[in-house]
Task: inverse folding
């Protein structure tokens, strides 16, 4: 496997492309600060530069005919933003607890347009600074997997945290949102 920037997304993080040579290092573009979150007792990282704020759970207004993981919209200080339940997006069962919150992220719809979206997560852990020595590429599982929304795996304090390319995770929702505006 090898890292490459997708030709249709020059602004995206590098993704793993299939080759016959093993990865020996992680590209420097993926090093930096990540907000670590939890979903179903697993840890994930989102680039801090994409995160705008973290808010308590609040009333979400459902929108008809949306996929199950698109919970609806919320009014955030006069701005209406869509809200996605990351548990459902990742195929996990819906749940909420005392630490459930919404992480507001900025994602690009196109080269000239970006939007804020809310992500329902089980909890927020911490912000970590990661160097290339702490980030491993996605391992070869022996069969084909879609790893386009994954940046890599980080080793933090003896735990493995999956680093997400949040724009890749949310691309289908942003495309659906554009279709509703027409």
Result:
């Amino acid at each position: 496997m090898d890292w490459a920037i997708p030709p249709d997304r020059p602004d995206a993080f590098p993704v793993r492309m299939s080759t016959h040579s093993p990865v020996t290092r992680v590209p420097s573009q993926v090093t930096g600060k990540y907000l670590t979150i939890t979903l179903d007792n697993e840890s994930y990282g989102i680039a801090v530069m994409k995160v705008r704020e973290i808010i308590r759970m609040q009333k979400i207004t459902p929108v008809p005919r949306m996929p199950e993981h698109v919970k609806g919209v919320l009014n955030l200080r006069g701005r209406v933003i869509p809200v996605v339940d990351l548990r459902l997006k990742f195929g996990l069962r819906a749940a909420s607890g005392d630490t459930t919150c919404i992480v507001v992220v900025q994602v690009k719809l196109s080269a000239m347009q970006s939007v804020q979206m809310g992500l329902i997560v089980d909890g927020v852990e911490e912000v970590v600074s990661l160097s290339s020595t702490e980030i491993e590429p996605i391992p070869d599982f022996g069969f084909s997997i879609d790893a386009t929304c994954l940046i890599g795996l980080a080793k933090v304090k003896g735990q493995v945290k999956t680093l997400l390319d949040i724009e890749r995770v949310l691309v289908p929702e942003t495309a659906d949102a554009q279709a509703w505006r027409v």
Remarks:
- The chain is about 10% helix and 45% strand.
- Residues 1-6, 9-25, 174-182 have pLDDT under 50 and may be disordered.
- The chain has one domain: 2-181.
- Helices lie at 86-89, 166-181.
